[in-house]
C-alpha cells in the first residue's frame, strides 16, 4: 500500500511535517497558499478585498505556524538539495505575503481600465521587492485612483490642453516620481499622447521594464512613452540632456510624491524648472490624506508652490475616496483614505 504521506491532501488540510510529506505534496500545498495582492478599485472596498483574501486562505495563525515550521525544518526526507531549496523558497514567499505589502517579493499585477471615452485595456506592472527607501518600486493606490480620473480631467480642468493642435510637441506631458509607471502609462493610453516617465536612477530599470512590456498597448491606443532619470534638485551638470532646456512641458502630473520633510521644496523646484511659463501650463497633483504627517506635507507643498519665483496657484481641487496600499498589517481595515487632487497653474492663468 502506498505511503499516505505521498497522497494528495483532502480539501484545505495542511500536511504534518512529522509525516514527512513528499515534495509534490508540499509544493502543491504551498502553491495553494499563495496570496496574490488584489488591485485596489474605487468601486470595491478595501474591507471586501481583504475579506475575499481571507476566505481563500487557511486560518492565519495556523498557516503562519505551518510556514515557519517548513522554513525551520531541515526537510531531510526530501530527495535532493534542489527540492529542499524550492520548498524553503515557496514557504518564504507565502510567509512574506502575510507580512504586508512592503515585505512582499517580486510580483506582476494587471491593472484594468474601462471607459466609454477610451475603451478597455489593462497594464501589466512589475513590482520588485522593496529595498531600503525605494518606495518607487511599489504601486501605491493614488496612482490608480488618479489614472481612473484622467479622462474626466481631459474634458474638464485640462480641456484647453487637449483641444486639436494644443499638444503639438512630443514631450509636453511629464510625470515626476513615476515609480512603477502605472499613472504615466495610463495617461499615454487615455490621453493618446506622449508621456515622459521619470524617477530616481535606482528606480529607472524597473520603470523602463514596465514601459517596455506595455509599449504595444500604449501605441495601440495612440500614445508613446519615454523613460528618463530625473532627480529633484539635482545639479544641472548631472541632469539628463532632455531636461536641460527649462520650462518646456505644458503639463506635469504627479501622484503621492510626499514622504519626507524636504520633498515639498524639492518637488516645487522640479516643477519650477520643467513647467512652461505660459498661462496655459498646468500641474495635476494627487496626494493621499493618510494621516497628519501627509496633510502637513501637503500644506508645505502648497506654500512652496505659491511663493516661488514663478508662483503657482490652485485653480481647482477636490477629494475622492479610495483605497491605499500603504501599511504593513494585512489585517488593517483602515486603508480607506481620501485622495486630494488639485490642478495648479501660473498666477497669470487665475486672472484670465
Automatic annotation (TrEMBL):
Pfam families hit by this protein: Methyltransf_16 (PF10294)
Top-level taxon of the source organism: Eukaryota
GO molecular function terms noted in the UniProt entry: S-adenosylmethionine-dependent methyltransferase activity
One cellular component (GO) term of this entry: cytosol
Name of the protein: Uncharacterized protein
Gene3D superfamilies: Vaccinia Virus protein VP39 (3.40.50.150)
Native organism taxonomy: Eukaryota, Fungi, Dikarya, Ascomycota, Pezizomycotina
